[in-house]
Amino acid sequence: MNDTLMTHEPWIRITAFGSVLLLMAVWEVLAARRPQSVRRWQRWPSNLLIVVLDTLAVRLVFPLAAVGAAMLAAERGWGLFNGVAAPMWLAVLASVVVLDMAIYFQHRLFHAVPWLWRLHRMHHADLEFDVTTGLRFHPLEILLSMGIKLAVVTLLGAPALAVLIFEVVLNATSMFNHGNVRLPARADRWLRLVVVTPDMHRVHHSIIRRETDSNFGFNLPWWDRLFGTYRDQPAAGHLGMTIGIEVFRDVQDLRLDRMLLQPFVNPPRDVK
After folding, report:
1. Nearest-10 Cα torsion for 25, 29, 33, 37
2. Residue 234 region, left (φ>0) first, then alpha (ψ -120 to 50), else beta?
3. How far apart are CA 135 and CA 24, in angstroms?
């Protein structure tokens, strides 16, 4: 099974990524939630190129990546689920949930620790909020995130299938909940009981600090409610709120070279 999984893994990832990206892009055209003053051609090339750089960086530094680490842990008997007799369905389900919780706490950590924030703020420095914002992460942050994920996968003894499911779903939900798409209010209220919706996550991209430090979930919405970081709506409303952070407000800061240099720049207004 693991051999089959490794054979088809790249195609599963590419197909899921391309399908969700296309679906969200079309949805944004047909039913946009907010008007955008910065054009797509000014943002999308850099936001999409950063995905290529992130992927290359991970494959270079972590050739096995998370699925490979899960397979290695299974071979060596490392981790919780490789040391206890548990049904596969339970190990897969529990692993996906625990991995999602780990990403929630990692996200909070990247907001709380100043030098980690310098890496993560590139994600928040986007001047608009749409599907490509969900792909915009600095390569150094991606590498640190992968290192944390590998540690959790190994300690948990997560099955390779669970890791693949988690990563594919996380990537898809990140594009979904960053979408500039309109959902009926009633549908949003019900959906955000089981998944982070665009309206829920958009609050996290507010320029207001107390709103930026809320709604940290990417996939499952329960952690924000459970750990007291949930905020229902932005104070200025979704149409009135300002997206981004107080620094890097120039359109030129959306260029790929400037995005990559942002962690090494310390503007005076960045108080994190």
Report:
1. 100
2. beta
3. 13
Contact indicator for 132, 44 with CB cutoff of 8 Å:
yes
Residues 214-261 pLDDT 10s: 999 999 999 999 999 999 999 999 999 999 999 999 999 999 999 999
- Kindly list the distances between the CA atom of residue 161 and the CA atoms of 1, 7, 12, 20, 88, in Å, as whole numbers in the listed order: 9, 13, 12, 20, 10
Burial letters 189-213, b for 16+ CB under 10 A, else e: eebbeebbbbbbbbbbbbbeeebbb
As to burial, measured by CB atoms within 10 angstroms (0-12 exposed, 13-18 middle, 19+ buried), residue 114 is exposed
178: number of CA atoms within 13 Å, CB side? 29
Write the CA distances from 182 to 167, 194, 196, integer angstroms.
25, 18, 14
Cα separation, 191 vs 189, in Å, equals 6
pLDDT at 270: 65
